[in-house]
Amino acid sequence: MSRSILTEYQVNIDHPIPEPLTIAHVSDLHERISDDILRRLRRVKPDFIVVTGDTFERYDNRPQYEFEHRPIKRLIINIIHYSNYLLTKLQSEKKKAKPENSYNFLSKAVKIAPVYLSLGNHEQMLREEDYRFLMENGITLLDNASTKITCKGCDILLGGVSTWDYETFIEDFKQQKGFKLLLCHNPQFYVDYLRDSDIDLTLSGHTHGGQIRVGKKGRGFFVPGQGIFGKYAHGSFFGNKLIVSAGCANTVVCPRFGNPRELVAIRLKGNEYGNI
Fold first, then answer.
1. What is the rounded distance in angstroms from the CA atom of residue 146 to the CA atom of residue 110?
2. Do residues 264 and 24 lie in contact, with contact meaning Cβ atoms separated by under 8 Å?
3. Alpha-carbon distance 208 to 232, whole Å?
């Protein structure tokens, strides 16, 4: 497993916030052991924790033929899929993806601060035991849903958009008033549909930091949904309105190089401090 880092951002919001808030941003656990991320989380001492998808592996584990009609790209998809399958079988038991790894992480995280969880592309088929676990542990699931929270006197509309059937939810969310914080697994969704909206802050993952970072600026070599050297692999964009995490887990086929696993901490300040 590659090393992990803590990346911190200061974000100034044009809304009244009585005192600064700290938000911890976790993404892409993929059912892997992440005890080092938990240790960093405890040191951050967040006011609340957001988890932006691909926490569980709950999807139809077949190559997506129906979404790709070009023969060469279809061949590449199959090579990646079956190579990943083989390497997964060869992994040690400790490194394999297991739901109990994510259960363990979340059950400990919620003892640090309230946890709000949205879904990613690997979570299209959550099981009954997943819903039961989240409810019994007091973890708020935001599946094309929002909730109003008050933290240190600051009112926040916190939403979680899923990667399917999102149209009705996102249109309603954009029309709400006040400080809006959106959990959106795939950053390309923000770039394509939300960049001109008045959503104050959007947090994303999905990209795994581009897997391999090259060059002085550390551009990700291959970014899911964005292609070679995709721009939105990790970091802050659009004046701190979109923050993309490099994620908390490794992939099997393509190990990380120059791309440590990442916990993100956001120090949020409002205009009552004269920051705007």
1. 19
2. yes
3. 11
Residue type, 170: I
Identify any residues that bridge with 263 across adjacent strands, giving them in sequence order. 6
Retrieve residue 99's tokens.
Answer: 């739901």
Cα–Cα distance, 188 to 224 (Å, whole number) = 9
* Whether the predicted pLDDT of 68 surpasses 70: no
| Residues contacting 100, CB < 8 A, separation 6+ | none
Alpha-carbon Rg for the chain in angstroms? 18
- The pLDDT of residue 137 is 98
Residue 94 has pLDDT above 60, yes or no: yes
d(CA 243, CA 205): 8
Rounded Cα distance between 154 and 152, Å, is: 6
Q: How far apart are CA 21 and CA 208, in angstroms?
A: 26
Place of tokens 């023969």: 71
In this structure, what token pair is assigned to residue 55?
């926490």
- Asked whether 47 and 24 are in contact (CB, 8 A), the reply is no
Compute the distance between CA of residue 73 and CA of residue 78 in angstroms, rounded to an integer. Answer: 9
Residue 157 and residue 15 in contact, taking contact as beta carbons nearer than 8 Å: no
**For the residues of 205-230, what is the DSSP string, one character each?**
--SGGGSBEETTTTEESEETTTEET-
